Amino acid sequence: MSEVAGPPVEVVAGVIRDKTGRILLARRTEGRDLAGLWEFPGGKREPGETPEAALARELHEELGITVDCGAPLIAVPQRYPHKRLRLDVRQIAAWRGTVKGHEGQALVWAPPHTLATYAMPPADIPVVAALLQPDRYLVTPAPNGSDAAWLEWLEAALVKGVRRVQLRAPHCPPARWARLVEAAVDACRRHGADVLINGDLALARAMDAGVHLRAEQLAELDARPFPKDQRVAASCHTLADLQRAQAIGCDFAVLGPVADTPTHPGETPIGWDGFARLREDVALPIYAIGGMTVDDIAIARANGAQGIAAIRALWG
């Protein structure tokens, strides 16, 4: 995609829920960019406005409601053919009034599990993932000790709330790894966690688990290797990797290293600015990896990430 000059347009949007937990979407009207697509309500932030003031003004003008802004959810940098924008999305803690489309826009109250079925602009797609999918992605270390100890550490991570796991064990003998994977997949399912197996498509199929593609595997694929009910993710380091992951229909990607990490010594970290620049050109949910801890989730979300992927920070 060609470069678009100038700073991004600052846009704010709100996640508005009704008493049953449904979420409000608005349809872009004819004559606007991306007409007909559904989005989280909001609009442009004017110079000198805080994000909270801009969102309160926009929602009052568009919907006729008064709102109390809550916590930030995610801020998505996105590049379009003719502009760049940064979509700053906030939870709406409370609202008063009667919701009505004052600009002629169609509105719908969508149950959360249906959000992904609505056609949306690229910047809004990661917002759905931020609402519905885990903000941390555990990558397992190699089982250098006993199998029992490794499985105990996995169980401890799941008890602490990890709900998405990549089973990865470089250089582990195949027979031993197959036994560990079977037990690990069972543990993840008992805790309701997504589980993906690194690199081994045959083992993932045998376990009916998802697969996490290595970057070199990704480059060789022309299509998604699994059906939609089995997760497919990919490790990415470049814009070309991300675009390939999106083109073949990956559910999410991991991008980095963002910071220095002992597991990839000598690799130059891309930093948060580099992460955000690469984030601009795809609509995939993307985890930041490389030197990440749980304390980095907020800054990751502020740069458009789904959250963080890590080994040490999430293990056990």
TrEMBL record:
Its cofactor is Mg(2+). Belongs to the Nudix hydrolase family. 8-oxo-dGTP binds at R28, E39, F40, P41, G42. Its EC number is 3.6.1.55. Coiled coil: none annotated. InterPro entries: Aldolase_TIM, Mutator_MutT, MutT-like, MutY_C, Nudix_hydrolase, NUDIX_hydrolase-like_dom_sf, NUDIX_hydrolase_CS, NUDIX_hydrolase_dom. Residues 7-133 form the Nudix hydrolase domain. The keyword DNA repair applies. PANTHER family: 8-OXO-DGTP DIPHOSPHATASE, NUDIX HYDROLASE FAMILY PROTEIN. Keywords: DNA damage, DNA repair, DNA replication, Hydrolase, Magnesium, Metal-binding, Mutator protein. It is an enzyme of class 3 (hydrolase). One of its GO terms (biological process) is DNA repair. GO terms for molecular function: 8-oxo-7,8-dihydrodeoxyguanosine triphosphate pyrophosphatase activity; 8-oxo-7,8-dihydroguanosine triphosphate pyrophosphatase activity; 8-oxo-dGDP phosphatase activity; 8-oxo-GDP phosphatase activity; metal ion binding. This is 8-oxo-dGTP diphosphatase. PROSITE patterns: NUDIX, NUDIX_BOX. It catalyses: 8-oxo-dGTP + H2O = 8-oxo-dGMP + diphosphate + H(+); 8-oxo-GTP + H2O = 8-oxo-GMP + diphosphate + H(+). Mg(2+) binds at G42, E62. It comes from Lysobacter dokdonensis DS-58.
